[in-house]
Amino acid sequence: MSLLRVDASIQGPRSASSELAELVLGEFTAAAPDETVLTRHLGEEPLPADAWALAVAGSATPEADRTAGQTEALGLAATLAGELRDADAVVLAFPLYNFGVSQHVKIWIDLVIAGAGPGVRLLEGKPVVLVTTRGGAYGPGTPREGWDHSTDYLRRILVDVWGADLTLIEREFTLVGVNPALDEFTELAGQLKAAAVAAATQTGKALATR
Ligand SMILES: Cc1cc2nc3c(=O)[nH]c(=O)nc-3n(C[C@H](O)[C@H](O)[C@H](O)COP(=O)(O)O)c2cc1C
């Protein structure tokens, strides 16, 4: 079994999403130490911002007429799609930034679709763990209910477009303790963190037995 882990935090060692992904991976590798783990960090090593447009243009251009940039971008798109296709399980750590997915994540998705072809169910039936973290809270009745434009979009791509068997691990209120305006939510934030840690631990164990 091979596992692909993709991170996207821009916050380096302070990343709450990477911390949870690390827990999933820790449990997975403890139970399945011989399995291959491939990693990619979209926040630390971003994909080139012009690659998607070049790949799309390249795919509409006869091979002999493609520019070097188009050929390179199509190669990158094929590589990214291949990483997902070849993985038996996938762990994604994608935070909420500015009420949506980061451009690092968006271009990864765009390039995978360019590399695989539209409508190709790259992850059909595969276990995929999506870890997502949010500084605030977006549940029913909160002032910003409906402002999280990341989670449903990712579910749409992973499940409805690529066919993944998705497990979602969410942690809200990660900015409690950082932003004093959120101090009144300290107890709740602690409970949400504990629940996310428990879910990550349990999910990592379960992944190793699939
Ligand atoms: C540039 C930036 C934009 C952010 N935008 C939002 C936002 O729109 N909504 C929110 O709830 N939190 C926002 N946050 C907080 C992050 O969601 C929070 O720090 C979360 O833990 C990020 O995951 P990470 O720790 O893995 O980077 C933002 C953080 C940064 C650095």
Number of strands: 5
For this structure, what is the CATH class?
A: Alpha Beta
Strand adjacency order, main sheet:
2-1-3-4-5
Residue windows where pLDDT falls under 50 for at least 5 positions: none
What amount of the residues lies in strands? 5-15%
Shape: globular
The molecules bound to the chains, other than polymers, are: flavin mononucleotide
Q: Helix and strand succession? A: EHEHHEHEHEH
Q: Name the structural class.
A: alpha/beta
Mean pLDDT rating: 97
Major beta sheet, specifics?
5 strands, parallel
CATH architecture: 3-Layer(aba) Sandwich
CATH fourth-tier homologous superfamily: Flavodoxin domain
Please specify the SSE layout and strand pairing.
Layout (H helix, E strand, L loop, with lengths): L1 E6 L8 H16 L4 E6 L9 H9 L8 H19 L2 E5 L9 H14 L10 E7 L17 H11 L3 E7 L14 H23 L2
Parallel strand pairs: 1-2, 1-3, 3-4, 4-5
Helix pairs in contact: 1-6, 2-3, 2-4, 3-4
The structure holds flavin mononucleotide (FMN).
Subunit structure: Homodimer.
Cofactor: FMN
Family: Belongs to the azoreductase type 1 family.
